[in-house]
Amino acid sequence: MLSARQELILRLVVDSYLRSAKPVASREIAERSDVGCGASTIRAELAALEAAGYLMHPHTSAGRVPTDVGYRRYVDMLVASGAPEAATRVELELSWLRREVDDAMRETTSALAQVTDLMALATAPPLGEPLYMHGAARLLSEEHFADLPRIDRLMTALEGRADVLEMLHSALEERSVFCWIGDENPQPELRSVSVVGANYGLSHRNLGSVGVVGPLRMDYATAIASVKVAARKLSRYFETVYGN
């Protein structure tokens, strides 16, 4: 268990690293007015977080970066506190009501990729319809490329689709947002990235999943909020489809 102060320091480290992609030094945390403790205490807490596996030293740098475990704790804190949906704009229009399922799924992944700047994925009911993907070019952009060490294996897995489709189907029992970070991913080829998703469906059962794939150093708050919005809108759409 982490103390409240350790959780705050971990969150600040992850937030800083997500913004800058640079290891975070203790003095950067100490300079913040909201921490409320001295530099020596912060150094001790950072050392404790590193010993517990939440942070690590990259190479010989004096700063620290999150580990997969650190990202996991950060995401759990985001989900527990509620992601800032009000700041997220997923443009999915009510014109869906006059569209085919295929069009609705393609519009969803296109909008989700645009708002998160990541690759978006979605499955449609019934099980065994295609895997919808959009945003490969965004994932391979210069902004993300340095954070994707095994891009060849990743793209091979995504292009194969079947394993990714099976992976998303395995999450259909999840009740809320789900997230696989690095080695948590069921598919070995995706263990250099994170997958953030949410299920959509009817009141009595889930029908499919919608999510994003991106580097470990992604904007998790926006990803979580965006997939929640997309899943909610898809649920409304399919309630109309099946209600008719």
Written account of the structure:
This protein has 244 residues and is α+β, with helices and mostly antiparallel strands. It contains 10 helices and 7 strands. The protein has a 5-stranded antiparallel beta sheet with strand order 4-3-7-6-5. It has a two-stranded antiparallel sheet with strand order 1-2. Helix 1 (4-20) packs across helix 3 (39-51), helix 1 (4-20) packs across helix 4 and helix 5 packs antiparallel against helix 10. It is elongated and about 60 Å long. The relative contact order is 0.13.
Cα radius of gyration in angstroms: 19 Å
* Helical fraction: 40-55%
Give unreliable regions as ranges. none
Global shape:
elongated
DSSP strand tally: 7
Query: Would you tell me the overall average pLDDT?
Result: 87
**Could you describe the largest sheet, including whether it forms a barrel?**
5 strands, antiparallel
Find the structural class using helix and strand composition: alpha+beta
Strand order of the largest sheet: 4-3-7-6-5
- Tell me the β content: 5-15%
- Give the SSE order as H and E letters: HHHEEHHEEHHHHEEEH
Summed up, the helix count is 10
Task: Measure the end-to-end span.
Answer: 49 Å
